[in-house]
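Subject: Sanity check before I submit

Could someone independently write out the structure tokens for this chain? I want to compare against mine line by line before I put it in a report. The sequence has 428 residues.
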Amino acid sequence: MPQIRQNKKKIFNDPVYGFIGIPDELLFDLVEHPDFQRLRRIKQLGLTHLVYPGALHTRFHHSLGAMHLMQQAIATLRSKGQYISPDEAQAVSVAILLHDIGHGPYSHTLEQSIVAGIPHEKLSLLFMQKLNHLTGGRLEMALAIFQDTYPKKILHQLVSSQLDMDRIDYLKRDSFFTGVSEGVINAERLITMLDVVHDELVVEAKGIYSVEKFIVARRLMYWQVYLHKTVLSAEFMLLNALRRAKELSSRGATLFATPALSLFLKQDIQLKDMEQQPEILDRFAELDDFDLFTALKVWQNHPDQVLSYLSQCIVNRQLFRVVLSNEAFDAGQTDLIKQAIGEVFTLPAEEAAYLLINNQTSNHAYHPNQPKINILFKDGTVQDIREASDQLNISVLSMPVTKHFLCYPKSIKTPFDDLPDGSGQKRI
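---
Independent answer below. Compare away.
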């Protein structure tokens, strides 16, 4: 752990909640650790700032905000007669503070490219186990809560569920920094309405409209921010740039990269490698947004045409055209676009494929197969929000919405260019 400080009564001036404090010395030491400080250098929303310029807040902001909300939730439940011991309060605060510590730069893009198949939740667990060792086993209860093996199930639900402190903070925070008012939720009321029945987290019936607003806000934020068509274009362009860089590195090509980035470009690192070789996890902890973006700036001048073109487009925000559809695109159409890319850029088919993105994305505003958001009525009965809601059809919002999208350079002429809105977006 870092050098011990005497004064650990620190407060942060958070733009969303105002002054927030760190509850105890253990949490302070965890915040001070370099593995957590690294989150200052990782943007919460990746490349979303290319659409919403204010979206430059970090995972450090979000983690502290979620910890702050956890303090409010603990106080609320205690005020309603729910016993949460001091050790449990500390442990659940540690679990929420560290829940995102395994995120890498442009996290979800990274998970599909240079650290393919290693979800950030698994890496967060490895980092927590590392910090547990460094603190002499003081995070054992937090680990149990994080992994949902602790007997008091509501503590895990506060960390990870369909109405947890993670989601409440990121919706409120992301709405604030993007300026998308459709995502505004009443976090204070949601938390104030929390209670417990048979070790299950519930929301008092008088808070049902706040829950409905939360679910609707989540749906709107996903399609307006997280899965915005231009954000999808940017993120998949970055994904293809990293995949191309990894392919070139595997062939022995000379490629600029920081030592940490170079390791993950040259080797196919698996989760078991990080579990068995702590030095690899330490090297992952050196990665942040600066490693990737510095590499992109240098790769703009790389002799490989695909890598240099994708890097130039991302750095200078020359993003691909996006076409959306409710149905999968016709294979004949996509083959013609790929052929056109090959002809315009003088690329063989396997390289032209990097400049055509044909994918899909889906979202549940409320997932029917995950733990429910339960509403507690005055007579003691408990109902799933889908059954309890009478103002809007939450059952409809629990159905997945899937959108197919096609992205390609704007210099490529296709039949989609003549659609009425003039943006290349297919009417859906």
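---
OP: Matches mine. For the report I'm noting this point. The chain has two domains: 11-228+372-399, 229-362+403-418.
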